[in-house]
Each structure stands twice: as C-alpha cells, then as structure tokens.
Amino acid sequence: MAEERYTPASKIRYSFDGNVLNINGTNDHTLREIRIPPVLDGHPVASISNSAFAGNTSLIRIEIPDTVTSIDSNVFKGCTSLREAVLSENLYSIGAYAFAGCENLENVVISSLTSRIDINAFKGCRSLYKVGVKMNGKNVIRDFMVASADDESIWIYMNSINSVVRKDHLDMAKYDDAFLEIQKNEEDTYRVAVHRLNHPDDLTPAMEQVYRRALRNMVRNVILSDRVDRLTALGNLDCIEDAKLDYYIELSSRIGGGCIAYLLDLKHRKRRTGLRDYSL
Predict the structure, then answer these.
(1) Within-domain flag for 28
(2) What string of pLDDT tens digits covers the 280 residues of the chain?
(3) In the chain, how many domains are there?
(4) Residue 94 is part of a domain; what is its CATH number?
(5) Is 160 a domain residue?
(6) Which residue range(s) make up the domain with 83?
(7) pTM for this prediction
C-alpha cells in the first residue's frame, strides 16, 4: 500500500507505553476519511483506544491497518456520518458500543479471526445491511447480508457471520441457522433471503425452500407497498407463484401503482415463452 494513502501522522493522536502503540484519536476533526498507518514512530499500531474517535460527525470512512488486534469500547460511538469501516485482518475483538449510534453505517469489513463482538457494539446501526469478511491470509472478501434496525438481530448476525469463515473453511449452514433464529421483520427476511438465493454457496435444498417460502409469503405486502423493485427481484427468483398470479394482478389493479404493469407483463411473457427471466 502506497505511503500517500495513509492519513499523515501529524493528524493522528497516539501513545506508546513501551509495549503497545495505541491510537487515541485525531487532531483534525474535519477529516472525512482516515486511513491509519500500520507503523508510527517505528512501532506497529496495535489497538484503538477507548472513545478514540467518538462523536466525530465529519468522519465518513475509516480504514484500520492489519496490525491492529483490538478495538476498545466506544471507539466510533456517535460517528453519525460514518458509512464504511474496513477493519484489521488480524482483529480479534470489538468492544462494547464501538460503533453505537453510527446510524448511517452501511458497510463493515471484519476479519475471519474476530472472535469477540460485544452485544452492543453495533447498537443503533440502523442502516447496516452488508458485512464483508476478510479471508485470513488472502486478498479475498466474502460479502454477507445482515439484519438491520433490530440491535439484537445485528449482534446475532455479526457473530454468526464471523463464525462462518475461518481461514479456508466455510460453513454457510451457521449463517442459514441464524436466519431461522432472527426472522423478526420482513425487511430482514427480504434482504437475507434474496442474497442467499442469488449466492447459493452450500445452500441445502431444505434451506432453499425456507428462503423461497419466506419470499413467496411477502409478495402480497410487496404489492400493497408498491415496491416494483422488490417484486421484480422476487420474479427473477421465481418466487411469484403461478397459481396466485391472477389474484396478484387483481389486487394491484385495485390499489394502483407500478406493480400492475410488471405483473401483466410477467403473465404475458409466461404465456408466450415459458421462460423464467422476469426482469423488466
């Protein structure tokens, strides 16, 4: 990684206790992106101290070097503009409330080595929907969808996702098991089910049916909320049942909106070609 990619040392507050070099924050609270160098004053950066960047509302993106093994409590608490966090490949723990209140955080990249994520680490991260997992020792990131809005669901998913990838080993069954455990709202169900059916790595026939059943059961609500984008996604995945198509057309015609056009076109193409490509 080129040296110029890193945030200058003059803009970072840090301390060295003779054993560990800790990041304590920044001297420039207007920075929108911070890329912490892996080495400062000849010492590898090992940890991010408690509340180091808390309340920094300018920060949009943070990149933490692979030398860091721990992130303490409250480190990014209240960083309301933070959207993306790329964490260390060698990170073992994420402390309590580390990202609490990061309401715009959408994308997190964690390590396959992370073994501890405190239950409130992502409290209030209501925009979080995507988690990448760094494959240890490889330049590979596996992407997973994560439940949003519900704090307990986020914590369950973060831990289950983290347990899926261990160096070269993948156990997608653990990810699917978490889906069964947290089905609390339609938003979570939609995101995860669509993702898994589009990326069916090690997806068992039984779990495929669970995901398909969940999506079929939400078609009516998707029509009632006039979500043409979601209806199209369900059609692409063959989750709009042929036997109910006329009912769905009648329902959408009563409420108006864009779904009626999609459903009529879907019915027409099914009759004409029998193909399973339902995109608009």
Answers:
(1) yes
(2) 445 589 999 999 999 998 999 999 999 999 999 999 999 999 999 999 999 999 999 999 999 999 999 999 999 999 999 999 999 989 999 999 999 999 999 989 888 888 889 989 999 998 888 888 887 666 678 788 876 667 777 887 787 777 777 656 667 877 787 777 766 678 878 888 998 999 898 899 999 999 999 999 999 999 999 999 999 999 999 999 999 999 999 999 998 889 999 999 999 888 876 655 545 4
(3) 1
(4) 3.80.10.10
(5) yes
(6) 3-184
(7) 0.77
> 280: how many CB neighbours lie within 10 A of its CB?
13
Report which DSSP code applies to 222: H
- CB contact set of 245 (below 8 Å; sequence gap of 6+): 263, 266, 267, 270
Residue labelled with tokens 């494959």: 135
| Residue at 123 is within a domain | yes
Cβ-defined contacts of 26-33 (< 8 Å, 24+)? 26/53, 26/56, 29/56, 29/58, 30/58, 31/7, 31/56, 31/58, 31/59, 32/58, 32/59, 32/60, 32/61, 32/81, 33/7, 33/59, 33/60, 33/61, 33/62, 33/63
In a domain, 216, yes or no: no
